[in-house]
Amino acid sequence: MLHAYELKGYRIAVDANSGSIHVLDDLAWEILKDEKERLPSLAETKEKLGSMFPGDEINAAFAEIKRLEEEGLLFSKERQLTAALRSEKKNPSLKALCLHVSHDCNLRCAYCFAAKGDYRSGRTLMGKEVALKAADYLVENSGGRKNIEIDFFGGEPLLNYEVIKAVVAYGRQLEKTTGKHFYFTVTTNGTLLDREKIDFLNEEMDNIVISIDGRREIHDKMRRYPGGEGSYAGIVEAALELVAARKGKSHFIRGTFTAENKDFAKDVFHLADLGFQEISVEPVVGSGKAFHLTEADIPLLLQEYENLALQYLERLERGQDFRFYHFNIDIYNSPCLYKKIAACGAGSEYLAVSPAGDLYPCHQFVGLAEFRLGDLKNGLNNRRLSEKFLASNILSKKKCRDCWAKLFCSGGCHAGAFFSSGSIEEPDEIGCLLQKKRIECAIMIQIALAERKEKKRLLQ
């Protein structure tokens, strides 16, 4: 399958089964723009384009396209994907745990997928014993992996700050006795950050995610304290302090856009203008509320992503650098083919742990009884569910298998699929459309940046 599109003057073709990207000239564009499944014959091409281009130019262009087809870079077959999937081990070792150290939150965000922080299971904090047992479980089930990861999550994880510190200290001890290396991350709403916590998190966390939705009026409409007051002012001040002291270590400011701010590009640039360099603004997940996105919103949202991409490039050209997460696709040094096929590893390489020590495929499934995989004491005892997640990939999902973008999104989010369709095998329609537009924009941006870099090189 081939996908051809135009954006910012670039004519681009993406080959679905190889992930190859091609920038097309006028003639190549005319040959390929309407073709999805097969390369027409030379005779067909000449009949179609003979009145537009000289015959010798058509011959040369067709020969080059035919060579790319023979090399598996255009109209490629699915065989290499199925071979990569078969060659990978079937029982991957555990790489990361998401510790729900807090099923409580001091905010009451309108769109919270975690039922305002308690995951429908009552407000509680993870005890130290369970948290340290989780670290042991990760080490014991990580096989030959040297690098392993613990993500602190909630609710608001900093409500359980002492347990976070205990896990980090214990992890550093385990590093000395096991030869493993722990990576620690935390996702926080930023409301509880103070100098002590900022210093600790900057020292110990390999990545920090802070939730800010963008403009004050947008943020405060969704992210409120229980009494109804907005949370913007205190969070932004603390986040800027943390980032300034982070000295280049990984972090993200993560926002959510809803039907209330379909002009979300303004929120991205607002965050950039505040001084944040690493930004992600994601579409809200779910349906049924006035702030949820609907099919009717799609045309406007797709145009907004294009607006964002074009303004983003203009800023980069002016030296106003920042990174927007969804435009950071590396089209030159991408993950291995198996990872592109199998995605995030939820339910096998990645698990979430509830405050009680129960195991789930990922943080968004915690609290849903049908997705309980086992517990820290007994391990995984719902093997059928674990195997279902392991077997779910871009080749098992019909909509993904026939999609040009599958090697760039790896089938999307299992939880997003489940919460929209009721099945992890049925991707969210709205999410897919937005993701494909983000991928189109990201590819165009990377091509434009590479072109700019080459021009600078030639002028030196």
Structure description:
The protein is built from 17 helices and 16 strands. With 460 residues, it is an alpha/beta fold. An 11-stranded mixed β-sheet has the order 12-11-10-9-8-7-4-13-14-15-16, with helices on one face. Strands 1-2-3 form a 3-stranded antiparallel β-sheet, sandwiched between helices. It has a two-stranded antiparallel sheet with strand order 5-6. A hairpin with a 3-residue loop joins β15 (374-375) and β16 (379-380). The chain starts with a strand and ends with a helix.
Poorly predicted spans: none
Proportion of residues in helical segments:
40-55%
Helix/strand-derived class? alpha/beta
Largest sheet: 11 strands, mixed
Please, what is the average pLDDT? 92
Number of strands: 16
Q: Given the C-alpha coordinates, what overall shape results?
A: globular
Spatial ordering of strands, largest sheet: 12-11-10-9-8-7-4-13-14-15-16
Oligomer: single chain
Q: What is the radius of gyration? A: 24 Å
Helical element count? 17
Distance between the termini: 40 Å
DSSP strand (E) fraction? 15-25%
List keywords for this structure.
single chain; 460 residues; alpha/beta; eleven-stranded mixed β-sheet; 17 helices
Summarize the structure.
By secondary structure, this protein is of the alpha/beta class. It is built from 17 helices and 16 strands.
List the helices and strands and how they pair.
Blueprint: E1 2-7, E2 10-15, E3 21-23, H1 26-32, H2 42-49, H3 55-70, H4 79-87, E4 96-100, E5 102-103, E6 124-125, H5 128-140, E7 147-153, H6 161-178, E8 181-188, H7 195-204, E9 207-211, H8 216-222, H9 232-244, E10 251-257, H10 265-274, E11 278-283, H11 298-317, E12 323-324, H12 337-342, E13 350-353, E14 358-360, E15 374-375, E16 379-380, H13 383-391, H14 398-401, H15 406-409, H16 414-421, H17 429-459
Parallel strand pairs: 4-7, 4-13, 7-8, 8-9, 9-10, 10-11, 11-12
Antiparallel strand pairs: 1-2, 2-3, 5-6, 13-14, 14-15, 15-16
Helix pairs in contact: 2-3, 5-6, 10-11, 11-17
